[in-house]
Amino acid sequence: MTGAKRKKRSVLWGKMHTPHREDIKQWCKRRLPILEWAPQYNLKENLLPDTVSGIMLAVQQVAQGTFALTSLISANAVERLVPQSSRNLTTQSNSSVLGLSEFELQRIGVAAAVSFLGGVIQLVMFVLQLGSATFLLTEPVISAMTTGAATHVVTSQVKYLLGIKMPYISGPLGFFYIYAYVFENIKSVQLEALLLSLLSIIVLVLVKELNEQFKRKIKVVLPVDLVLIIAASFACYCTNMENTYGLEVVGHIPNGIPPPRAPPMNILSAVLTEAFGVALVGYVASLALAQGSAKKFKYSVDDNQEFLAHGLSNVIPSFLFCIPSAAAMGRTAGLYSTGAKTQVACLISCMFVLIVIYAIGPLLYWLPMCVLASIIVVGLKGMLIQFRDLKKYWNVDKIDWGIWISTYIFTICFAANVGLLFGVICTIAIVLGRFPRAKTLSIIDMKEMELKVKTEMHDSTENWPPSKRTNVKVFPGSLKTGSNIRSLSVTPRRMETSQQIKIISINNPLVFLNAKKFSADLMKIILKESDSNQPLDDVSKCEQNTLLSSLSNGNCNEEASQPCSSEKCSLVLNCSGLTFYDYTGVSTLVELYLDCKSRSVDVFLANCTASLIKAMTYYGDLDTEKPIFFDSVPAAISIIQSNKNLSKASDNSEV
Question: Is the Cβ–Cβ distance between 300 and 557 less than 8 Å?
Fold first, then answer.
């Protein structure tokens, strides 16, 4: 018996610690999303738009190459370790790899090493689950960093746009040294290159603006990048511009893909700085685009999964001499405009790029570098026009405006990763400096508000007929960080559940540190089915903390249930404890308002400061037909009941 019991216990213990097949399946689907969406792919509806979008994306890929910001960071390492000046010191004999010289292989090897180490850093960040710290990357910091990095890329193309021969300049304040060199050697500008650059930029901007304006009327936009490449290469070949005018051309492009080969591991320590830059800048820029897509198409983004995806996409290709990659704003916008439905568009794009690599690449020999530089500069338009965000930040939160300016200055003075680090540290320091001065509502104040709501509702509903009575739930705030919400039910006498009003008090500042947690917790409350017969104790157990008391990160697991089981819900946010906010906090409030509106939940804000009202009105497209800002919670409740009476009267008149 003893042996049998031991055997039974060991079997049970093994079952407890052996992962179920379903758990493994779910893990694989979470880490390899293609396993989830590929079996559900609709060939009839999605294949044609995905094919068209994939072809257009491939055209952009051929014209612009990979992500400009990570390419610039990689170029810093290449020029530092294998500068152009060392070409004459290196054996010029061709190697057995695609006919490349030893000098070219050394430079490519440095870029591959940056890609490999950058991918390894991203995979380590995935293992450490550092995606949960991405809430520190606020929108102003990301916007300023990407704009500054785009400015660096434009600066790196100036020598090609003007046709100037100049040494490679990098390092701190290198941005200013480049323009100083250009002005000192302004007489050496090649007129032919300058005119061709201006013509290319004008044609690109004009045609792309026309494509944007008429994209709803035309099924396929004009691939102006490809047309310009073909036209410029043909014209350069026919007129022999390389020899006649001295224009610099792209030159020899090898056919095919080299056999797999490990990057040079002996230089990993020398490229550590650039690898960190690639890992952080590439991830941040890609995550910003992913979050923008998530807002647009109503889905969630796993921040840690992004580390895994980008890490693998840098480590594996590095064995094939590939440079670091990341998502690009221009190509993402291109997928939107051409009507891509799924990730199949990207797979089709990859197939067409392979065709170019194996068959069409050598034909780009005659492409003038000034035309290629023009395509790269115009492709950065989406990042450069982020300067327009300054007006928005100034009107919403002037501190965020200052953070944007300072982050941009640090980025152009030093590097993108330095600017990003400065922006994050500056943001945290300012918030930590503002939090100690923040005031919250005291318990006495909250009780006075509860009593006021209860008294007014009792007096005003004493003579209401049953059909017009309202169930009011008041969720007052808590004073201690991390504490749970204290739920009180205030119900007037002789009441039936006809309409539910939820009152939630915000008792802490709303900033980037707690905005995500606030949004997640608030959506949990909104999406829960309300049960008017639920006892008070059970309500206290089931409700979550929505008071911004916790500064931890949270994810919103939306439920399929509707927020109200009877009639339309109304939500009143008491903002008397919202002592200060930043741009992220305002955007969170506006997005929650719009999301609730789409779910047929009316949202009203009480006790808002004039600056908060101005910021929310400026930021978002709020409903101006009916008031949403009120001086007090009772005033908001009064309007809710008035609207309900008008709705009842309208229904009766129709009958």
Answer: no
pLDDT range class, residue 486, cuts 50, 70, 90: very low
Tokens 């089915």 — which residue? 529
Q: Which whole-number Å values give the CA distances from 642 to 136, 564, 606, 645, 649, in the listed order? A: 43, 20, 17, 5, 11
Whole-prediction pTM: 0.71
**Within a 13 Å sphere around the CA of 67, how many CA atoms are in the beta-carbon half?**
28
Strands 629-630 and 601-606: parallel
Tokens of 157: 């193309």
Binned at pLDDT 50, 70 and 90, residue 302 comes out as: confident
Using the Cα atoms of residue 116, residue 264, residue 269 and residue 176 in order, give the sign of their dihedral: negative
Query: What does the block give as tokens for 128?
Result: 């450490």
Position 315 scores a pLDDT of 95
- State mean pLDDT over 107-117: 94
- Mean pLDDT across the chain, nearest whole number? 77
Helices 102-127, 303-315: crossing angle, 10 deg rounding: 160
H/E stretch holding 489 reads strand 488-490
Kindly tell me the sign of the dihedral angle through the C-alpha atoms of 110, 384, 175, 163: positive
**Residue 148 in contact with residue 416, Cβ under 8 Å?**
yes
Return the bridge partners of 571, or none.
502, 603
Residue 369, strand partner residues: none
Bridge pairing between strands 500-505 and 601-606:
unpaired
pLDDT at 498: 46
Q: Pick from 484, 557, 543, 481: which is nearest to 513 by CA? A: 481
Q: Which residues contact 533 (CB under 8 A, 6 or more apart)?
A: none
Cβ-count burial 170-185 (b if 16+ within 10 Å, e if not): beeebbeebeebbeee
Strands 488-490 and 471-475: antiparallel
Q: What is the mean pLDDT of residues 507-513?
A: 83
Helix (H) or strand (E) holding 474: strand 471-475
Q: Which residues pair with 249 in a beta bridge?
A: 368
* Res. 488: pLDDT tops 70: no
What separation in angstroms does the CA of 30 have from each of 24, 37, 42, 306, 316? 10, 11, 21, 11, 20
> Has residue 186 got a pLDDT over 80?
yes
Alpha helices in 158-239 (DSSP H): 158-162, 174-184, 191-213, 224-239
Q: At what angle do helices 398-413 and 174-184 cross, to 10 degrees?
A: 60
Please state, in angstroms and rounded to a whole number, the distance separating the CA atoms of residues 175 and 181. 10
Among 499, 74, 102, 88, residue whose Cα is nearest residue 317: 74
The pLDDT of residue 451: 46
How far apart are the C-alpha atoms of 543 and 378, rounded to whole Å?
51
**Positions of E strands within 491-579:** 500-505, 569-574
The whole-angstrom separation of Cα 57 and Cα 68 is 16
Alpha-carbon distances, residue 290 vs 59, 554, 555, 604 (angstroms): 22, 18, 16, 30
The upper half-sphere exposure of residue 69, i.e. CA atoms within 13 Å in the direction of its Cβ, equals 30
CB 175 within 8 A of CB 155: yes
**Who wins on pLDDT, 469 or 115?**
115
**Can you tell me whether residue 482 is helix, strand or coil?**
coil
CB count within 10 Å of CB 5 equals: 9
**Neighbour tally for 644: CB within 10 Å:** 18
Mean pLDDT, residues 192-200 taken together: 95
Tokens coding 597: 């509106």
